[in-house]
């Protein structure tokens, strides 16, 4: 994906923090600056179902990244995204708010009666005052709407713990074993 | 700090924004460790050598930085833990504490072929046996001694094999700080929302984080390979006979290493027998039966169950105490699916009754003898034996 100019040894993956997504990708996109590496494609107002993102968005593991635009309703051919009603501020390292992270869930079918799925989307957009690139145009007035409506999205299918034992976290079972290690004085038949 | 400059990746712009070192277990073993043990050059020196006896976990964190981006885990090569022929377990001790193995090792596969093992260790501050458990976890990955042929793993179980040249015995390690399960929802990968069907299948009325995930997990963990020579688990827990598992209606039980054991049976029937003839009412261990689980046939891992029971009896692990109640009432040896106040075992067949179950089975093996345990288990008197019967057929 992208220009293929990322040439890293095995084991390096695209796992951006919220701050990195906003600072290194969204802010630069909005400011029309080149992103390096240019790995996230632009799907605009994409009509794709989440499982159609493969090959279109940047895929990393079971996550997909792409740029899009802010919109009130995201309807696809087989369903729609519905807000989960959770908006988290994205802070930079000096605790300044630089953007917002919205959570969406994908529903199959039509809006009132759709069936919930495991597909989740994080949509990052710049906060109104957080973007240094729009300092000149302050609030309201003559803001270039097109650029300020860019968002960057992460889509993934929610998994359960047991499919996630990749070694980066204590597995569920080991968690129990660990909590029971205090009981090692019990003489197990050995 | 100056040492870090030797990592070429540590230069400012070597790792592009958004990228971090997040290798799979397969990559760690097949690429990095295999190159290390064969003295091949590794492109970027991202994994450094660490003497585990000299560095505390928080020092490793500093030494193994990659670039300037925040990290949740750190990687390094280390020498295999030295083991002495006497069999005494040696801890990887540092100035401030020691690493202690926990759980059981996990087999790492690559393309369906076994390539190595993962050991989990916990850092304790202080000196054994009175160390204080910390949140620092280490996963130590080792290659199988004979990885050319995938079928030779059995012969490796001899502990003498591979001890000769331990100077060349490298392992690759990942350390990280354990997260509380209740706090992991910020991670997109680790949320633990339970769908309706999964939740009702496994257990009901439980909102505790870790345990419910455990029970979900147990349905699959039995498929793993338990054959590890260094395992801290007792012998009978190491192998899981999956022959009887067809549709989830039968429980998978450990195959017992007993001459009477009938491994060829299609299924095993769990029976709890009371050998002490204590009245049923005194056998209720749980403080509050209403907190008990109803565990359906999805419960398949006896190892975990047994340890939970043990902890329950000991009354030391709070979570277990709250979550599991256990009864040795003989009338409960035949569990019905509708009683939500007792730990449920699946119902197999219809011939069981309140007593005399053992007559029907040709192999009754003592699985867990609590009376043999330490004297601290005051509440265990009433629970004499947990016996497991092979299905008679």
Please explain how this structure is put together.
The complex is a heterodimer of chains A (190) and B (393). With 190 residues, chain A is an alpha+beta fold. Chain A has one domain (18-165): NAC domain (Metal Binding Protein, Guanine Nucleotide Exchange Factor, Chain A). Chain A is built from 3 helices and 8 strands, in the order βαββββββαβα. Chain A has helices at residues 18-30, 145-148, 172-180; strands spanning 12-14, 58-60, 63-69, 74-75, 79-91, 97-108, 115-126, 150-157. The model of chain A is unreliable at 129-146 (pLDDT under 50). Chain B has helices at 25-37, 57-63, 196-202, 209-221, 302-314, 318-323; strands spanning 19-21, 48-49, 73-79, 92-93, 97-110, 113-125, 132-143, 170-177, 268-270, 364-369, 385-390. With 393 residues, chain B is of the alpha+beta class. In chain B, helix 2 (57-63) links the parallel strand 2 (48-49) and strand 3. The longest helix of chain B has 13 residues, at 25-37. At the A-B interface, strand 1, helix 1, strand 7 and helix 3 of A face strand 1, helix 1, strand 5, strand 6 and strand 7 of B.
Strand order of the largest sheet of chain A: 2-3-8-7-6-5-4
Task: Name the CATH superfamily assignment of chain A.
Answer: NAC domain
The spatial strand order of the largest sheet of chain B comes to 2-3-8-7-6-5-4
What's the total count of β strands of chain A? 8
Oligomer: heterodimer
Mean pLDDT of chain B: 58
Q: What is the H/E order of chain B?
A: EHEHEEEEEEHHEHHEE
Strand composition percent of chain A: 25-35%
Q: What low-confidence regions of chain B span 5 or more consecutive residues with pLDDT below 50?
A: 1-13, 147-167, 182-210, 219-300, 315-393
* Helix-and-strand structural type of chain B: alpha+beta
How many helix segments of chain B?
6
- Give a short account of the largest sheet of chain B: 7 strands, mixed
Query: What radius of gyration of chain A results from the CA coordinates?
Result: 20 Å
Supply the number of structural domains of chain A. Answer: 1
Amount of helix of chain B: 10-25%
Largest interface chains and counts: A-B, 56 and 81 residues
Architecture of chain A, according to CATH?
Beta Complex
């Amino acid at each position: 994906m992208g220009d293929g100019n990322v040439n890293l040894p095995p084991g390096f993956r695209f796992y951006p923090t919220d701050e990195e997504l906003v600072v290194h990708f969204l802010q630069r996109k909005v400011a029309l600056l080149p992103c390096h590496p240019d790995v996230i494609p632009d799907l605009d107002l994409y009509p794709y179902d989440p499982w159609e993102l493969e090959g279109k968005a940047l895929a990393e593991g079971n996550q997909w990244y792409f740029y899009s635009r802010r919109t009130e309703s995201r309807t696809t051919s087989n369903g729609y995204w519905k807000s989960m009603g959770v908006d988290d501020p994205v802070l930079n390292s000096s605790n300044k708010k630089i953007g917002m992270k919205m959570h969406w869930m994908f529903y199959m079918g039509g809006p009132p009666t759709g069936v919930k799925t495991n597909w989740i989307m994080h949509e990052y957009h710049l906060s109104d005052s957080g973007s240094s690139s729009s300092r000149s145009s302050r609030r309201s007035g003559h803001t270039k709407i097109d650029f300020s409506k860019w968002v960057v999205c992460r889509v993934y299918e929610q998994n359960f713990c047991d499919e996630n034992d990749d070694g980066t976290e204590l597995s569920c079972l080991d968690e129990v074993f660990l909590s029971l290690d205090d009981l090692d004085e019990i003489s197990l038949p050995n | 700090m100056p040492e870090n400059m030797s990592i070429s990746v540590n230069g400012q712009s070597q790792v592009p924004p958004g990228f971090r070192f997040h290798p799979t277990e397969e990559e760690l073993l097949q690429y990095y460790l295999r190159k290390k043990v064969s003295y091949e050059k590794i492109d970027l020196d991202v994994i450094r050598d660490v003497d585990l006896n000299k560095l505390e976990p928080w020092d490793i964190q500093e030494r193994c930085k990659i670039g300037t981006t925040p990290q949740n885990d750190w990687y390094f090569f280390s020498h295999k833990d030295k083991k002495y022929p006497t069999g005494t377990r040696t801890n990887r001790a540092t100035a401030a504490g020691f690493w202690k193995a926990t759980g059981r090792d996990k087999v790492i596969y690559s393309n369906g072929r076994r390539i190595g093992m993962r050991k989990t260790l916990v850092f304790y501050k202080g000196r054994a046996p009175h160390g204080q458990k910390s949140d620092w976890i280490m996963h130590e990955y080792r290659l199988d001694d004979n990885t050319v042929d995938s079928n030779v793993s059995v012969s490796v179980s001899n502990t003498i094999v591979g001890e000769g040249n331990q100077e060349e015995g490298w392992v690759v390690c990942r350390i990280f700080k354990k997260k509380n399960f209740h706090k992991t929802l910020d991670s997109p990968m680790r949320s633990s929302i339970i769908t309706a069907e999964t939740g009702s299948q496994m257990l009901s009325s439980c909102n505790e984080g870790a345990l419910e995930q455990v029970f979900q997990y147990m349905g699959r963990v039995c498929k793993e390979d338990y054959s590890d020579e260094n395992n801290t688990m007792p012998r009978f827990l190491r192998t899981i006979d999956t022959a009887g598992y067809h549709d989830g209606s039968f429980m998978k039980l450990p195959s017992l290493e007993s001459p009477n054991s009938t491994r060829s049976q299609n299924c095993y029937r769990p029976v709890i027998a009371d050998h002490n003839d204590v009245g049923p009412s005194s056998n209720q261990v749980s403080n509050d039966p209403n907190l008990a689980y109803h565990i359906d046939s999805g419960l398949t891992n006896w190892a975990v169950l047994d340890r939970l029971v043990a902890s329950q009896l000991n009354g030391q692990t709070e979570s277990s105490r709250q979550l599991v109640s256990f009864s040795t009432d003989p009338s409960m040896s035949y569990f019905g699916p509708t009683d939500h106040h007792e730990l449920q075992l699946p119902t197999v067949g219809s011939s069981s009754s309140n007593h005399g179950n053992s007559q029907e089975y040709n192999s009754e093996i003592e699985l867990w003898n609590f009376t043999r345990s330490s004297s601290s288990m005051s509440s265990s008197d009433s629970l004499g034996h947990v016996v497991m019967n092979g299905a008679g057929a």
